[in-house]
Amino acid sequence: MLELVKRQVAWDPKSVESRLNFAIEVGDRLPSGRPTAFFNTWPRIAREYWEEYSDRIQRTVEPTEDEVSEMLETMRLLKLLDETERHIVLLTLLKIPKRVAEEKLGMHRTTLYRQYQKVLAKLANLLNAADIQRKLQHTTINIHKVSANRHECA
Question: Which of 2, 70, 74, 93 has the fewest other C-beta atoms within 10 Å?
């Protein structure tokens, strides 16, 4: 999380949302986990549109190592949230239809939007607090270390 803090001066909900959108975009560009050399001699099965959708997706350029590391770093932020907050963020960012998200979470769409905004603000506050902690660690004396040394001398 400290790497995130080094790149941004002050975090606000919009910058957090753009960072999460970037992580989702990079995740979409990752190659699928299916083997590429596999083939089948059986006749092709007539599939529905939604069953073949993943085969029709055109992949863009694969992400670089830096983009993947930024994506993983951003996804680690979601560990700071509880399960419901994570669901709210992911359902919103993955552009799941609002009706499905409403049914899954049991919230009205306006409540869902308000909760989403609160979660983004919470992440921005956590990142700004981490930035302050990092600055304080580099400029102040570690009080616990000083008090431990004082007790050893006595």
Answer: 2
Count of CB atoms within 10 A of residue 87's CB?
16
pLDDT in tens, 6-65: 555 789 999 999 999 999 999 988 877 766 666 667 777 777 766 666 655 565 678 899
Is the C-alpha dihedral spanning 77, 79, 81, 84 positive or negative?
Answer: positive
Cβ–Cβ < 8 Å for 62, 29: yes
Rounded distance, CA 23 to CA 138, Å?
Answer: 30
Retrieve residue 149's tokens: 């040394």
| Residue 141 to residue 22: CA distance in whole angstroms | 37
Q: Give the largest Cα separation in the chain, rounded.
A: 84
**pTM greater than 0.85:** no
Q: How far apart are alpha carbons 57 and 98 in whole angstroms?
A: 23
